[in-house]
Amino acid sequence: MISREQMDKNQVWIYVATLIIAAGVGVWLPEFSSNLDGFISFVLAVLMYGMFTQIPFFRLKDAFRNRKFIYALLLTNYLAVPLIVWGLVRFLPGDPALLLGVLLVLLTPCIDYVIVFTHLGLGDEKLILTSTPLLFVSQMLLLPLYLWLFMGDQASGIVSAGPFAEAFISLIIIPLMFALLTQWWSKHKPQGERALHAAAWLPVPFMALTLFLIVASQIAKLYGSLEYVGQVIPLYAAYMIITPVAARLVSALFRLDARAGRALIFSAGTRNSLVVLPSALALPETLRGVVSAVIVTQTMIELIGELFYIRFVPHVLMRER
Q1: Residues 6 or more apart whose Cβ sits within 8 Å of residue 156
Q2: For 58-110, what is each residue's pLDDT tens digit?
């Protein structure tokens, strides 16, 4: 039987295999696949619960001990990245759905599998892990502001608060509450400790299942939105090339050590597509197809890019001093 350590070590290849299988299922069984998107929110909620149980919320003060990293993390994700995104979207046509999809996915830093890739890229995954609550809260507060800055009144005209609030509660607040209860239970009862240990098995299989559901159910929409997909692929590739360099400069500015600098680079390059997709699926029908296709495209480009990151970042861009 495979151990959790073996599963964690090989999870990138599990995700790659899942994407290939999901693409095949989505193409060859379109009627079956089109019904899978109804399961995305539930599976994603379980994934978030599993991820949240591994975050030391009751030691949250540890996240603020390395203040230089926190300042660098916030500066990179909420100043450098928005400036990069602003420059990149200048090359897009003015289609609201296209712009909204790109902004939703690129302006929200990842809070789940970025931990995995940071570890594989020889970065300090503990810094990312303890910073996750801060990233999670800050992006939910700042995203409406950034959408307004980038799209103006147009954003309020096409994005209603209801679906986003519903997604936030079901995908973040409820899993978070259950995770906090599990952590509290583990500190007081042996059964709780066993439950916390069992929850540690959830992230990898449910990450794979989430990717499968997303790609299988949405890949047909990519075919229906090839014009838009073709426009965003170069933009996403440019994003993954530019942001590591920007994060490396911020790392030098704050004099971060190599492992903290790598963590900063992975945070800048990895986006929160899994969490924003259900919100995109809650948009009006006229927008849903294009926005979800744009977000799914970013997921696929990003996973390919991360395979390069885990080699390039520690051995070229951020080597040990």
Answers
A1: 148
A2: 666 665 678 899 999 999 999 999 999 999 999 998 788 899 999 999 999 98
Mean pLDDT value across residues 201-208: 88
Contact 22, 219 (CB under 8 A): yes
Q: Is 38 helix (H, G, I), strand (E, B) or coil?
A: helix
Q: Name 7's Cβ contacts closer than 8 Å, sequence gap at least 6.
A: 14, 201, 204, 205
Q: What is the pLDDT of residue 58?
A: 67
Cβ–Cβ < 8 Å for 117, 310: yes
Indicate the angle between helix axes 285-312 and 226-253, nearest 10 degrees. Answer: 40
**Where do the H-state alpha helices sit in 107-152?**
114-120, 125-151
Residue 306 pLDDT > 70: yes
Burial 292-307 (b: 16+ CB within 10 A, else e): bbbbbbbbbbbbebbe
Greater pLDDT, 147 or 170 = 147
pTM: 0.84
C-alpha 51/C-alpha 90 separation (Å) is 35
The domain limits of the chain are: 39-183+220-317
Distances (CA, A) of 185 to 63, 180, 189, 200, 281: 22, 8, 6, 15, 35
* Residue 253: per-residue pLDDT: 96
Do the beta carbons of residue 274 and residue 253 sit within 8 Å?
A: no
Q: Could you tell me which residues are beta bridge partners of residue 109?
A: 271
CATH number of 39-183+220-317: 1.20.1530.20
Tokens of 222: 């990519």
pLDDT digits (tens, 9 = 90+) for 23-39: 899 889 888 888 887 88
